[in-house]
Amino acid sequence: MNRTSKATLATFLFALTASGAMADVSVKEPWVRATVPQQTATGAFMQITAPRAARLVEARSPVAGVTEIHEMTMDNNVMRMRAIPGIDLPAGKVVELKPGGYHVMLMDLKAPITEGQEVPVTLVVEHADRKRETIELKATARGLGAAGGMQHKH
User: Fold this and answer.
1) Of 28, 3, 51, nearest to 98 (Cα)?
2) Are 59 and 132 in contact (CB under 8 A)?
C-alpha cells in the first residue's frame, strides 16, 4: 500500500469512527399501546441506555399529529400526567419509559393503532456537548392487556 492509499484509509477510518461515536444510545423493547375505536391518543414505551450522560429532548412519529414526552406522578393521591421538556439519561443507567411513569405520548392519531402494527418513532437525544443523535425505531403495538411484555395468565 502506498503512502496516499494509507492516508486515505486512515482518513476514512477516522471519519467512520467519529460518525459512529454518537450512535451509542441503545433502545430496547419499544412498544406502543394499541388503541380502541375513537381513541385519539396512546403511549409509547421502551428502555433507553446511554453510555455517557445525555437527555431525551424530542420524540416524533408520523402516526400522530402531536408527539410529546410525558411523565406521570402522584399528587395528593391523584395520578397526574404532564408534558416535560426531556428526560435525563444518566451514564450507563437504564431509563425505563413505562405505563405510569415516563413515556412518549402520541396524540391526535391519524388512524387507529392495531395490535401487531409496527409504529415508527423517532427519538432525539442531546449529549453533553450539545450534539444531537437521532434514533429511528419501530415500536410494536400491543393490546390493552399487555404491559411491558408481561402478561398474567390464570
Assistant:
1) 28
2) no
